[in-house]
Amino acid sequence: MAPARRQSIPGELSKAAEALKAAGEQLNAELGNRAHSTGAISQLAATIGNLAPTGLYPSDYCYNRINKGSRWPPMFEQIEQGLYRYLGPQHPFTGPVYWRQAGTRDRPVGQWENGQLTLRIDPHLVVPGPDEPAVAGVEENQWETEAFESLLHSLALENSNRTLTFLARAIEHHREGNWDDAIGNLRKVLECVLREVAAAHSLRCRGTELGNARYRDSQDVRTYLQDEDLLARQETRALAAVYGLLSEYGAHANEASEDLAQLSRSLTLALSDFVMGRFQRALDE
Asked: Model-level pTM greater than 0.85?
């Protein structure tokens, strides 16, 4: 494949890019030109742009990393997993570009020289081989995420931004091929939804606080949801099984696969929507 050359000259920026750019500039102004976490960047960008953090990934706007979700222009440098330094568009960056294909390790696929990029391999053009079946990616399932966000906001649950930050991290890890980290953050998404539904139900429907001890115990939360008829017994067992699956694979490096990460995402969003839907029905009665 012939090298592809592009200069780091941005055109009209998207809303997401504008928000990430403003967030990077503000963080640098307040904290100095150092690395910032994905959560800090995404959350601030979401606030600035009035956008959901699940659509704001610094990894999509990186000089030294590329993936199938990459956007233009680059403005961040990945320092390590989950940490990014804001450089800004049109930066005279010099250094390698890395890509992690499904099931493989990072490999250099291009080079920046004083703000000009040469790509030897463009992930956007790579077609899976016969032994590498295509798996529906996070972009292809965007409707699932949008439905989840809509329901989360409509119920006005506490800590919704924290829940969406965990989801944003899960999606970013998925794009980078970090399957165990993606699953670990999905477990936190499910945990947050169950906790906040239980807390909101107790306060709005029973007029009492759930209690901190029960709120923090995932098993007690599921028991509460069952006792209040938001879950049937078999549904509680199914939730416990999925939670156990997410905990098992999310805690062990290099044991998860892309297929399992995709399944975990679908199960997490489906079960979260199911529980929130039951809560909405209880409010409507």
From this structure: no
